[in-house]
Write a structure and sequence with these properties.
- It is found in: Nucleus.
- Pfam families: PHD.
- The chain is mainly alpha-helical.
- Helix content is 42%, strand content 4%.
- It has 10 helices and 6 strands.
- A hairpin with a 6-residue loop joins β1 (105-107) and β2 (114-116).
- The termini are far apart.
- Residues 1-10, 18-58, 81-88 and 232-243 have low confidence and may be disordered.
């Protein structure tokens, strides 16, 4: 009896559902649909542990308008466009909140709304060829924005370049690359340019550079003349860097000799300043030794009179050349000037001495400042000398590359 009542109720609910579907409305799930009776169910039982394969739906088209997207969905679902029509296909769309009036439209990747190209000031050619990801003005902010593809370098072309292909190219095709170069070459003067007026090359000169190995593409992707254009072309000719200075002119040789002499003088003065710093350290060691021996207190000045030669280059040079100076630097120790093993002879023994106040730091700071200045001067002189030698070497390599030399038979 219970089974008969359950079957009758199920038949009544099915009749109501079929009647509602015939009227065009969506069926309301009945109680039996929500909790079907296990005894009356005829659906096959799925085995446990069997996975169902779900195919990923293809990506919908980004451009073409809502009707194109509707056609794509109907083809994907296997239904006709008339069956897939709904109340939302007619709009409103875009910033103008209009309908799909057969104008070109593009879909936003975030809000899935469609926008007329005229309303967002985007042509169909740009939208279909140069848009990687479109974000509408309503969704655009500092973190989310439209991403464009790199356009072809030819100004009149609105297609994407071949940067993702191998080999990479800034043009969409080889024809546009050739067209771009033809335009660049045609703008240059045909005849020989007047030297001194500008740095513009003629058509023959630029074509000669392109045909040679004098040009290169930098790491930034810019084309230009090599920093050492004749270096590679002369390696096979036996040209070595050691032979470059022999090709300098008399004027260049005089400049190079003066620069070498100046640099040598600065190097000698820097070495002398380093010895001054060494003498200051030896004077501090002698003061600490006298304090450790109990001869003077820590409040004693301890300035050594031989430090008067510091910062006086001629006087200090004479002290370094004297037997006392040579012995001090050989033993790395300052001793009694008279050789009687006195701890404090020649040392200032005043307390809180104002004339020598802070002599340990002040003398060393002054010498270090002089070393820095002379080091910078030596680097400048060396750079000037190197520039002259490099220019002479570059001139020789250019002559060797051009073949402008006379062979004596």
């Amino acid at each position: 009896m219970d089974h008969t009542y359950s079957d009758s109720r199920f038949e009544q609910s099915e009749a109501k559902r079929l009647k509602s579907e015939s009227r065009g409305g969506s069926p309301r799930p009945s109680a039996s649909d929500r909790t079907p009776d296990n005894s009356s169910s005829t659906s096959p039982v799925r085995k446990k542990g069997v996975a169902m394969v779900v195919k990923k739906a293809p990506k919908r088209p980004m451009a073409g308008g809502p009707k194109a997207a509707k056609k794509f969905r109907s083809q994907r679902d296997g239904s006709s466009p008339e069956e897939s029509e709904g109340g939302s296909e007619g709009g409103p769309y875009c910033l103008c909140r209009g309908s799909d009036d057969h104008r070109w439209m593009i879909c936003c990747e975030f809000c899935d709304d469609w926008f007329h190209g005229e309303c967002i000031k985007m042509t169909k050619e740009v939208g279909e060829n140069l848009i990687e990801k479109f974000v509408c003005p309503n969704c655009t902010d500092s973190k989310v924005f439209t991403i464009y593809k790199k356009a072809c370098t030819l100004p009149s072309c609105k297609r994407a370049s071949r940067l993702t292909q191998t080999p990479q190219s800034a043009f969409c095709s080889s024809e546009h690359s050739q067209m771009w170069w033809d335009r660049i070459i045609s703008r240059l003067p045909k005849g020989k340019t007047k030297s001194g007026l500008n740095d513009q090359l003629s058509q023959d000169e630029i074509m000669a550079i392109l045909a040679s190995d004098l040009s290169e593409v930098s790491a930034e992707g810019k084309w230009g003349i090599k920093a050492d254009p004749f270096g590679l072309s002369t390696e096979g000719n036996g040209v070595k860097d050691e032979a470059m200075p022999d090709q300098i002119t008399d004027e260049e040789r005089i400049f190079v000799d003066m620069a070498s002499s100046k640099k040598k003088q600065l190097e000698d003065e820097i070495a002398m300043c380093n010895k001054m710093l060494t003498l200051i350290e030896l004077a501090q060691d002698r003061r600490r030794a006298a304090i450790a021996a109990g001869k003077i207190g820590e409040d004693i000045c301890g300035y050594d009179q031989r430090l008067d030669a510091v910062s006086a280059r001629d006087v200090f040079s004479a002290y370094v050349a004297s037997p006392e100076g040579q012995l001090a630097f050989e033993q790395s120790q300052l001793v009694d000037p008279l050789g009687e093993n006195s701890f404090t002879r020649g040392m200032c023994e005043r307390k809180r001495c104002k004339p020598h106040s802070g002599w340990q730091k002040l003398l060393a700071a002054g010498i270090k400042h002089q070393i820095r200045e002379m080091t910078e001067q030596a680097e400048e002189v060396g750079e000037e000398e190197r520039a002259v030698r490099d220019a002479a070497g570059e001139r020789l390599r250019r002559r060797m590359a051009e073949g402008n030399r006379v062979e004596v038979l």
